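Feature request disguised as a bug: please show the residue count (140) next to UPF0225 protein RM609_02410 in the output. Example input:
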Amino acid sequence: MSRRSSRSPKPPVVTAGSPCPCGLDATYGDCCGAFHDGRATAPTPERLMRSRYSAFVVLDPLYLLRTWHSSTRPDDLDLDPGIRWTGLDVLATTGGSAFHSDGTVEFRAHYEAHGEAGSQHELSRFVREDGHWVYLDAVE
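Example output, currently without the count:
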């Protein structure tokens, strides 16, 4: 992550009517946008993870911080606008129902950075904090 520079490319324009970056068959406004603007909260760890991926796409660090567990949350987050997130694959999930207090989501997020394609593979842990799902950490 790095500071924004005037030479960095702008993030893609995502409007309420755009397809949601998370990959679900819905518009951004009806899907992750509702979580980002506080109209709804993610009902499962998978939906939270998808909304966090979309927050990287639209460069929304405040949402990422708001959905990060208080014990592992950084003080601030500076997203790199030079990274363009290009797709998300959810590989597996565990737990995370209304009857669980924790869950995991394994995913692969695809990106382009400085002209090169790459991906991030992670097994993320999620827990409930104050009744809401939050990101805890990545399983090593």
